[in-house]
Request: fold
Amino acid sequence: MGDVNLQTGVPVRTRYRFQVKQVAPPELIGREAELAELTTFCTDPSTAGSYLWLRAGPWAGKSALMSWFVLHPPPGVQVVSFFVTASLADQSDRTAFIDNVLEQLLAMLGEDLPPLLTAATRESHLLGLLAQAATLCQERGEHFVLAVDGLDEDRGVDGSPDAHSIAALLPRTGVRVIVAGRPDPDLPDDVPPDHPLYRSSIVRHLSTSPKARAVRDVMIRELKHLIRGTSTQQDLLGFMTAAAGGLAVRDLAELAATSDWHVEDELRTTAGRSFSRRPGTPPVYVLAHDQLYSVASEMLGPRLDHYRERLHIWADSYRVRQWPSDTPRYLVHGYAATLTAIGDVPRALEYVTDPRRHDLVSASTGHDHIVLDEIKAVQRVLLRQQEPDLVALARLAVHRTSLYSRNDWIPAHLPSVWAMVGRLDHAEALLNVIGDLVVRSRALTAAAVEFHRAGEQQRAARLLDEAEDLAKSFNQWWGSWPYAELAEAAMRIKDYERTRRAVDAIKHPEERAEACASLAHVALDDLEHDDASNWYTEAEETLKQVGGRADVTAIAKVAAAAASLGHSSRATDLADGILTEDSPVAPDIADIADRFLDLPSVDRTVSDHDKAKAANALAGAGLSDVARAVTATISDVDGQEYSLLDVTRALATLDLDKAEELARTASDVKYLSARLAAVAVAAGRNGDPSRASRLVDEVDETLEELPQGQWRRFTIMAIAVAKADAGAIEEAESMVRSHMLPSEDITGALSVAVALVRRHEIERASHLVTLTEDAARPASTSIDERRLLRWVQVMADFAEFDRAERLVRSFSTEEVRSAGSSIITEGLAVNGAIDRAEQTLHTIADPRLQRRPRLELIRILLAQAQDNRATQLARTAETSNDRAAALTFIATTARKADLLDEVVGVADNIAELEARIKILLSALRAAADLGDRPRVTALWHHIRTVVGHTGRRPVRIDGSRRLFMPLPDPLRTLTEIAESVDREPRFPNYDNTPAGPVAGPGALWLQENSLPEHKKLAHNLATHDWFDLVDELVEVEPDAFRAILLELDRLGGRDALHPS
Reply:
């Protein structure tokens, strides 16, 4: 069994062989015909890649035959095996199968176990090694066989929809497989319908061996002897049965309150023949046959509960000692499975959520997948309940999220770069360690392309299978990028059916048009002009479905696709439309009309991010003038410069002269250096090495004077890449070591590695990626803090303000800290803690997020007749709009018309006319509501003066497209004034103030199915991060809140949500 290293020919042994020896009989009697049939199956060319299934009832001698064959294979046959053993809790499920078969395969192939393998990664790694072993055996003129005994004893098959069986993992093709088991039960539900195990032609019914029947009779007689034996003998049987096996001598001695010597003496006597010794550190004992457990359970009767209770007391003795390093192996690997198997959910829940035990398992195994598998097993038990226990599932979810977050340090492109340098197994190992599903989705699609390029088509397809499953559960309110990226990756590996599915799954027409346009570019890259034309046509048709409301990014991407395909006239029409009056980039008169008529409307403002994306797309298609015009509309200076950098990079791929000309329009040295460095990279890759060298030298001279920050990081990265492209490899590597890695620029370092791969410097690239991975671990970022605002809101709702404030203070970004503080301020105000609420209000750095909590406090103060305090609070507003709105509200509510004079003063200090008129109109409406005719008259004249108009026709404000509808002339009734103001356009908020700090419409990842809401929430808790669901959870099950707090306290500093 695995006794030859296929790479070297050197004999090897694995520890699993010793476990097989414990199952095998001293000699095999009466099975010559069966052994001959097995030999034929393993060596006949017609059976290559096929299955043989030996079926028989209990005590037929299946395991004896299989173990003998594994230990004595025919010449030229290499066997890797696994014996599903229910008598050993850690040898009876998919995890145990993977671990043991992996060990044998790695020994056979002469390879080391890659680091960072998780449950999902180990599966794909195992399948790859099985295929590799079969191929190498064939090349050596040998035969490879996978043998699995006891499929019917798989404890991972528990009837739940998300259970994972050993049978489903067995390879469908390419490997000879021998399995043995009983006729029942049926195959697990997760075995695909086209799997070879469903073929009746592979079944061979095994007759019962007379020798096996005799062994059974002897074992049952000995079991009866033990039941009537000494107290120690009865204890050994009772504890072994209660624990379902896997106990060491020391364990049995502690349980039976006797000495190790006494236990060993009993196990060496005649009584010991009912037990079987299995290798390990230390060795463990099980009942000599799996069927003896059911027999022993029946014989023990009610006494079995007594032994189970003593087993639990023993386990608790280690728990209260906080799981010391000498904790028995059974409590680390087997006890949780026993608890789950007997349905002791409360005890299993306490056990698998114990953080100190998590630390012990991680330290002893080097990974977390055992604990995660245990958590998932308890989840499956809970999900089978008629009304799943949401509190219990929430507790499990807290720990599952925490364990996954330990591995959230991996950048999305690290696995694909490892694949580029040929380290496919390591790339796959990294992929499924990624706990953040957003990063994981992007990593899977990027890596799949590189796997396919390396000739690993099946592995690439498996990666895209997983990416597609993730995309299906993604909440498209947040965008359709998982499907768009999946479609592009599938297109690049020629998986056109998957590409079609992905595009069709995109719900929003604009985003579907963008995806189609992007696919047109992918097809052009592959010189598939007809496909490109078809995707472009579909993009145009999809865009027409939206009509005049298409967003700027979709229009730009379709225009870029048109230009790339040579449809220059259409591209120009689309591009020009982006900046015309009908474009969403320009102020839209439809917005004014909607607001004038007080109709519901959608906010059609275009974000700077979308403008930057549009500009980049346009520049890449040669529409640089329009791209620069779009960039000019970006409000933020740094954002505008980032967009111009992208435009410069895109333009440089088409016209280096124009790109350099654009680069040199930058006045600030940090912007200039970044743009020139980008042009240098493009010049080196587009046949102009002299320009590249000149620009690199020019930028090199400016590096020392560049301030620290993103611009310096980008410039250093681009120069290092340009040097690597030009063959100055040592200089490029030096920049990585001296600049990028110390500043944790992981993306930059990987870019240099990719440049080395492009020059076929694989060994040096691999070394660089190793250094980068080492640097990435301490540089890891935690959970996206915006997602935690839901948890802040729930803590505020439950008045846990101290905890909420500690979490908010730990946030790294000012914007999210402000949003969190805004939530807390509102919560404090609602709970009557006015002084503390006011103090917290002044800690909110973002003035936009002060507005709503300030107004809430003012309402409460006015209700308490604290008008002066409310007024003072209104005057602390940092923006004119907010200050004016707060004062106007107080004037109306407290009937303090004199405050409107102060509002007019605020308005008159605003230079922007629209904002000034908006405030004045609000003051006018308030004066009318107060019945203050003199003040209304004064404001009426003041507004006409500000507008500079005395006629009856509408006017444009400052020559813009904004309209001002004049007030009635002459002034007659206050009601007429009020109604006129109500009809006046509600100008967009001058400060772009958000309504309040919201976390979003729901979780990023959703389970869309027909389950009842309670069960759907339960299933989501079993698969998603708990803080994405916590608001919905506590609404349904308020007790979950305290349960989550307790689990976070148990985790302490192990979890990012429990800052010190």
Notes: The two ends are 53 Å apart (CA to CA).
